[in-house]
Amino acid sequence: MAKDARKLRDQAQKAVDKGKWKKALEAYVELERVEPANGDWSRRAADAHRRLGQRSDEIVALMRAVERYSQAGFLVKAIAMCKMILAIDPEHTASQQALAEFSAARGIPVARRSNVSGRVGMPAPAAPPEVAKARTIPPGATLEEVDLNKVVPGAKDVGGVAEAPSGIYEIPIEEVELVLEEYEEPAAAAPPPSPATQQAADVFPRTPLFSELGRDSLHQLITKVQLVELAAGDVLFKQGDRSDALYVVAEGAVAVVSEGPPRVKLVRLEEGEFFGEIGLMTNAPRRATVEAAEDTQLIRIDLDVIGDLVEDEPRVLQVLLRFLRDRLIDNLVKTSPLFEPFGGDERDELARRFRFLEVERDAVLVTQDARADGLYVLLSGRAEVVRGGDGADDSGRRLATLDVGDLFGEMSLLTHEPAVATVRTTSKCFVLQLPDNVFREIIMTHPQVLMFVGDLADQRRRENAAIIDGTADYAEGHVELV
């Protein structure tokens, strides 16, 4: 059987390479028979039907892929196939029902809040104008435009007193848990899940954001995402483009590229991986180009869909912030030699030790001639590095401007010496902070890190001396975000 499958795969690929789509289709249909659990063959058969102009047959093949992916537990792929069908036939009831069943498999009632567009049920009366509530995230806005300290329970000023607030707020993101059983619908409100959808629930991919959403929030996400198809080499967006959506790879792979110069491929992202998170934080341009490394299907999640989720379930906001923090720490571990030894559970624990801070404009995070109180990573906004003056005004010599992904405070922590300059925000910022006591604990409990820090600290002292006498520029680390 395995030999037959290999032979068929070779035949199919040769036919595709030569553009002989009828021959390729015959091979894919036979592969469906030989490997009936593999939804990829149904999907590729659908592509062959499309190339041959057989749209109704394409839909039939895509539905076979939906069933096989859902049986195997590949929910993201099954959703992508449903979206492909609905792009061909928006009224296709079987694919609409399949999306509803994916929701039911996680206990998400299909008929819930009837006042939400696109759901089952009679429209609810509109709220009177006088009680209408402003959206937490307005349409078209990013998290940068939201005062988190006013909407997230438990937010606190961490650097000031009542008479003189610091403008630095810690936003709690660990305490919240979205409990899937918090809402019970009568048994008749939704059909019992089929064996296929129940199996999908059991092996639901443990991807960030998806796995932590509650019933109704997951239902919204599933029904409002968009499918994006790319051929190998196609560019999804370019470095410098506007950030307006988050993406997850449903099939295939993309390459993240820095345009430089020189042009450099930073990383390859494959099935189940997210990217584009910077677009949730800020309207700042994309920091890199993303292009398809092979034929690829992506799930696109628009900013306004995220805003809808937050509006219906406010706790989603904290889950989203935790997701963003964990994504950045994952990038930090991949790019910084300092945190290279961390992996698996240690990486998760490292992420939990970082605090999520909302910082107002003109707030001072690091003060010249004082020890830095932590390692900082800039998630959004800008800050300036100033030497001389009192750090609270525009006096002094500007050494650098810090942007998204830049680290600071590292020099002082590594050398155990006062900071050589003040770091002051020039706009509202979101910042991650690893407190100094946690930083020291990490160094002392990881011999590999301790050895690296010994060499790096000497290098930093030389750099500090050069900065002070004006013969070198200020520079610390950087984490690339897309």
Describe this structure in words.
The chain has 482 residues and is of the alpha+beta class. It folds into three domains: 2-105, Serine Threonine Protein Phosphatase 5, Tetratricopeptide repeat (Alpha Horseshoe), CATH 1.25.40.10; 141-176 and 315-482, Sandwich (Jelly Rolls), CATH 2.60.120.10; 225-313, Jelly Rolls, CATH 2.60.120. Helix content is 40%, strand content 18%. It has 16 helices and 18 strands. The chain has helices at 2-17, 21-34, 39-51, 55-72, 75-88, 93-105, 148-151, 195-202, 215-224, 278-281, 303-312, 316-335, 345-353, 410-415, 436-445, 447-468; strands spanning 156-157, 168-170, 226-230, 235-237, 245-251, 253-258, 264-270, 274-275, 289-292, 296-302, 355-359, 364-366, 374-380, 383-387, 397-402, 407-408, 422-425, 429-435. A six-stranded antiparallel β-sheet has the order 1-2-11-18-13-16. Strands 3-10-5-8 form a four-stranded antiparallel β-sheet. The chain has a four-stranded antiparallel β-sheet with strand order 4-9-6-7, with no helix packed on it. It is elongated, with a radius of gyration of 26 Å.
**Straight-line distance between termini:** 43 Å
Q: Spatial order of the strands in the main sheet?
A: 1-2-11-18-13-16
The overall pLDDT average reads: 78
Tell me, briefly, the overall form. elongated
Structural class by SSE content: alpha+beta
* CATH architecture assignment name of the largest domain: Sandwich
Please name the CATH topology of the largest domain: Jelly Rolls
The overall strand count is 18
